[in-house]
Write a structure and sequence with these properties.
The protein folds into two domains: about 30-150, Immunoglobulin-like; about 160-420, Aminopeptidase. About 30% of the residues lie in helices and about 25% in strands. It is built from nine helices and 18 strands. The strands form three sheets. The chain has an eight-stranded mixed sheet, sandwiched between helices. A five-stranded antiparallel sheet has the order 1-4-10-6-7, with no helix packed on it. Strand 16, helix 7 (about 330-345) and strand 17 form a beta-alpha-beta unit. The chain binds zinc ion.
């Protein structure tokens, strides 16, 4: 039998069939998920090597706070391929009477509209918008390299915070790099003190800025970073602020939970922001409170800023203490600070969604409302003390490292404007 040679059409069909099949024939490297580094967290990881999909939930021990933070590295990617990351909420609970997590946490806390992605764990950007399918949130991520980091939000680990502090302090006489304390697990807690010129200490405004009393709220560390960038900037206003004040800056309070990928919020026995009592449980709270007491003693506890990220649907806003439990004067002063903060942050470009109305916290907010840091400082501070909490939106296209840093820069400018309105302090 004579076999006729294939026609041109047959060759084209054969080649296109081979082209369709070839991705299945290629031996792709196996996808792998690494959670062995500082700050990493993921659980129930299932990898489908054929459809290149990774299922996971946030990791973290619920005794150490809400399990809503996730952060891991994917290796074994073929450059240019798109993976699906499928996130489900954690079912972890704490079965202790009175515990905050007797029932699983609402998954919305763990599910930003966009995942944060980084090629190197340092520079972060957003994924495309995720899609919600039943219990799952699905992010599609195209990778140009063989690996990437994925996280709930841009990460800032204790190691990052130490690096930031060292960079800010390099070659700057006005900046002292210090340690607030060692954590209960022995980790250093980086801290900076900024003051410039020869103004006597007793005449300087005392300013305290801290972030991450709740470890999962990584965006608040980036707000703290933007704050310090502005303070150390070249503007005349920033220079005047450095010459008039003494600024203490702690970018991560709960370093142990930030290092181990735990949420921190509502940790047992209580989290850092319910720990400002006469006998603090956590080393960082104890050390911060002792330094704040020194400022109060010297009559210089002027502005205390506690940085957080809020609920999934919240914009940026200030939390203030209800003037009914303060004094009308203190109520007016904290309101003035919040108005300046709003004026500054709401003008940021690109726009940061922010509420003009601060939320008021009163005695019925929480059993331990007096043990929340800004309230403790308001209640124990000097007559002029302003102590407020800033919650920065995390679930918006603006919740990037640039957006967070912008909020911090605007907040620092508002602080400079606020202090410029105050009468200069003279040594008594
Ligand atoms: Zn918080």
């Amino acid at each position: 039998m004579r076999v006729s040679p294939p026609s041109l059409t047959q060759i084209v069909v054969l080649l296109s069939l081979l082209g369709t099949l070839s991705p299945h024939c290629e031996a792709k490297e196996l996808l792998r998920v690494d959670t062995s580094f500082e700050g990493a967290s993921a659980a129930d990881i299932k990898i489908d090597q054929d459809i290149r999909t990774i299922e996971f939930t946030p990791g973290g021990d619920p005794v150490r706070g809400w399990p809503c933070w996730w952060y891991f590295r994917v290796d074994g990617i073929q450059p240019g391929e798109t993976l699906q990351l499928k996130l489900r909420g954690s079912n972890a609970t704490v079965q202790q009477p009175g515990a905050a997590l007797m029932k699983p946490l609402s998954p919305s806390w763990a599910m930003p509209g966009r995942a944060s992605i980084s090629a190197d764990g340092a520079a972060w950007s957003h994924s495309e918008k995720g899609t919600r399918e039943g219990d799952w949130m699905i992010y599609s991520v195209r990778s140009e390299g063989t690996s990437f980091y994925a996280a709930w939000g841009p990460a800032c680990t204790p190691q990052d915070a130490r690096r930031w502090a060292a960079e800010f302090a390099r070659n700057k006489q006005a900046v002292q790099s210090l340690e607030l304390c060692r954590s209960r697990e022995g980790r250093p807690v980086p801290m900076l003190r900024v003051q410039e010129g020869d103004k006597p200490q007793a005449e300087r405004f005392g300013v305290w800025v801290q972030a991450r009393q709740h470890a999962w709220e990584s965006g608040s560390s980036w707000v703290a970073r933007g704050f310090m960038e502005w303070v150390l900037g070249d503007s005349e206003k920033a220079s005047a602020l450095r010459r008039a004040s003494e600024i203490t800056w702690v970018p991560i309070m709960d370093v142990d939970n930030a290092a181990t990928g735990n949420g921190g919020k509502d940790a047992v026995p209580y989290d850092h922001n319910r720990d400002w009592s006469d006998l603090p449980h956590w080393n960082e709270t104890q050390a911060a409170q002792a330094r704040v007491k020194d400022l109060i003693q010297a009559g210089r506890m002027d502005v205390f800023l506690d940085l957080h990220n809020p609920g999934p649907d919240d914009p940026t806003f200030f939390f203030l203490l209800d003037p009914a439990v303060l004094s009308p004067e203190k109520g007016d002063r904290q309101r003035r600070f919040a108005d300046l903060g709003y004026r500054s942050i709401s003008q940021a470009k690109p726009m940061i969604p922010m509420s003009v109305n601060p939320k008021m916290i009163g005695a019925n907010y929480s059993k331990r409302w007096r043990e929340m840091s800004s309230h403790w400082v308001s209640l124990h501070g000097n007559p002029q003390t302003v102590a407020v909490c800033l919650e920065t939106i995390w679930n918006s296209p603006a919740s990037t490292t640039d957006g967070y840093r912008k909020v911090g820069q605007c907040l620092a400018e508002a602080l400079a404007d606020f202090l410029a309105e105050q009468p200069p302090r003279r040594i008594p």
